[in-house]
Amino acid sequence: MADYITTYTGIHMVPTDPKPEDFEIEDIAHALSLICRGNGQVKTFYSVGQHCIICAREAAARGLSKRLVLACLLHDAGESYLSDVPRPFKKSQPAYRELEARMLSTIYEKFLGSDLTPEETAVVKEIDDMMLWYDLKILLNEEQPACPGEPLVKPSYEVRPFIDVEREYLELFALMTA
Hints:
- This protein has 178 residues and is mainly alpha-helical.
- The chain has helices at 25-34, 48-61, 66-74, 79-82, 87-90, 94-112, 118-140, 162-177, and strands spanning 5-6, 12-13.
- The chain has a two-stranded antiparallel sheet with strand order 1-2.
- Helix 3 (66-74) runs antiparallel to helix 6 (94-112).
């Protein structure tokens, strides 16, 4: 067995040693459109790609820079290669968190030109956490304390064909990089 994974576009990448040339936006969009949020423990399929799109649309609605909109779109891009690991488990896995951070940093460097600053990271996390609050409430009927506020863009939890999510992800990426 090889120590690499083969991506949708045919790239052989070693997930423990990510390099900028390993990443193609088509691979990210494709994989995220097929990966279910919450490790599949939800009442209906909702992809990580849909979540990333709604985070990016929220950043755009707030009038944030194209860089931050793109950062929101890409904030879970590492999951294209490492899968979606639930936060409670991820918290107990320091090696995984380090690998995920290194991979995301490499993805940001490739598509944004540099890693995020601590201030940019805080903005992305705020939007991600807000959307997670709604994901838990709507996808799991789980009441959450302290509503983080109303998003400017309401999340839609309709089941969508993966190809539509993939296409929308790529269109939003193209718009933010034009």
